[in-house]
Design brief:
It holds the Pfam family Epimerase. The chain contains nine helices and 14 strands. It is α/β, with parallel strands linked by helices.
């Protein structure tokens, strides 16, 4: 199968591409910048997916059988309410329409746990795919609108899986994200500043997330599916695990105020992913964090 992967140079894209190629697929990637040979597995086409003419040319010239759509606005600290979120939804709808018009058969798109109603989660309540959605950010709202569009297309005979990602960790994260921020401070022998750390979160290694999307391209499942570990750990536990693996530094829990809108519990029910699709992770939390530490040790800047 010829599979087009958008956002392939993001956190999970390279891992999805590697799995697709290992499974025998012909992979085409696209992005705004030209890449050096070897940067990504597969063949790369440079262009802006927010440009309608590029989308038209891309689909018409390549005519992919499969589509893994990961591209979106993801700038750390900006994407939640970035004004181009609606542009990405509209571009994604057009990309899907062109994909299907040219004979595309199977699509897997990246959704988000931000689609759910974070304020209505009871402690210990894992989020199933049919949980209430009431996104409080523009990002979550536009992702949810696109999810509904995909469900409508499925009702008309399309084959689309909508993978709702929870928290990710792994190489090349923005330095200000939680795991890199804690890791970099501790590697420097400094106090790692953080909130109280009482919040329970679901972390998944980026390689596992990419592998899940690649597996879904070959699976008949359609509809909503959580892409996560299904395990909850407090942020303080995560920070203390990083500290124990590094062996130096201190955790300054409570040095940053908790955000009043931060949900106390955000963990996925992954029954559909593990039981229906049969996906198994390679990384538990400790192995995932160890991998992050090793990456930041070799990329101190």
């Amino acid at each position: 199968m010829k599979v087009l992967v958008t956002g392939a140079n993001g956190l999970i894209g390279p891992y999805a591409c590697q799995k697709l190629i290992s499974a025998g697929h012909d992979v085409i990637t696209c992005g705004r910048s030209a890449l050096q040979a070897g940067d990504l597995p597969g063949r790369h086409i440079a262009g802006d997916l927010l440009d309608a003419s590029f989308r038209k040319h891309l689909i018409a010239s390549e005519r992919p059988d499969g589509l893994i759509h990961l591209a979106w606005q993801t700038t750390h600290g900006h994407f939640w309410n970035a004004p181009d979120n609606p542009d990405w939804r509209e571009a994604s709808i057009d990309l899907l329409d062109r994909f299907h018009d040219q004979g595309g058969k199977r699509a897997v798109l990246a959704g988000s746990c931000a689609e759910y109603d974070w304020q209505g989660i009871a402690a210990g309540q894992k989020l199933t795919e049919d949980a209430t959605c009431n996104p409080h950010t523009i990002y979550g709202q536009e992702k949810h609108k696109l999810a509904q569009h995909c469900l409508d297309l499925n009702a008309k005979g399309a084959s689309i899986a909508w993978g709702r990602l929870f928290l990710l960790c792994g190489p090349k994260e923005a330095p200000a994200r939680f795991v890199p921020a804690i890791t970099r401070a501790l590697l420097a022998g400094e106090a790692a500043k953080m909130s109280s750390g009482k919040q329970i979160r679901d972390f998944m290694h980026v390689a596992d997330a990419g592998a899940a999307f690649a597996k879904l391209i070959d699976h008949p499942f359609t509809g909503l599916i959580n892409i996560a570990s299904g395990e909850g750990h407090s942020l303080l536990e995560v920070a203390e695990t990083i500290k124990s693996l590094i062996g130096r530094g201190t955790i300054a829990a409570g040095s940053i105020p908790d955000r009043p809108d931060d949900p106390p519990y955000l963990v996925a029910d992954t029954s559909t992913l593990t039981e229906t699709v049969g996906f198994r992770r390679e990384f538990d939390l400790q192995a995932a964090l160890q991998n992050c530490i090793e990456w930041w040790r070799s990329h101190p800047a």
